[in-house]
Design a protein that fits this description.
By secondary structure, the chain is α+β, with helices and mostly antiparallel strands. It has two domains: 142 residues, no CATH class; 76 residues, no CATH class. Helices cover 41% and strands 18% of the residues. The strands form two sheets. A six-stranded antiparallel sheet has the order 2-3-4-5-7-6. Strands 1-8 form a two-stranded antiparallel sheet. Strand 6 and strand 7 form a beta hairpin. The N and C termini lie close together (10 Å).
Amino acid sequence: MVSGRLGIRDMPPLIFHPEISRAPEFQKVLDQVFGAYRETLPEDRRYLLDRYRVVDAAMKVVGVGSVGRRCWIALLMSESNDPLFLQFKEAVASVLEPYAGKSAYPHHGQRVVMGQRLMQPASDQFLGWVTAEATGTQFYVRQLRDAKIKPMVETFDSELLLLYAKACGWVLARAHAKAGDSIGISGYLGGGEQFDDAIGDFALAYADQAERDHAALKAAVRKGTITAFQES
């Protein structure tokens, strides 16, 4: 874990209760947020959500890809004490907006949700979006699945690595074909190897850049420009 002169004792826990969550009016905020979020769900999912009640909410420290974005975790319980964790992640304008134009969706959370529904074979059944009236912050909502599994590609042999690459390619191609113009994409790629070679060149250049960035990071740590902490 790397930070700019930030001691390990100064870092907040992964999940914590801010002072606002202890205020009496916080329950009214939760009721508003959940009521508005519920309206974005398909009717059958609303019936399922109605089996749960909100018990608690807290903030969660997000990962590197979402640094600086608000993230709330809500705990819901059913009558039979079955828990349901929902994650409310702040949604802002896409980084592609300056180049591709504004989204067709007026709500950034809705844009994220519709994108996932378009690309994924089966999306989270509780995907939705909401705006917090008190702050105007836009969020998208999904179930919290705080467990990530990834293959250890560094242990693969050439045969397994090729199989894994093909599987990733098929998943990516399916998402593009489902959400985009599959005929147009096929025509652009053509039947030759020019696109394949370009992707290979990009991958090698990207890997080389990542190694240069890591070397620069280590050099900065040695010079004391930044302080690095190793997770235990």
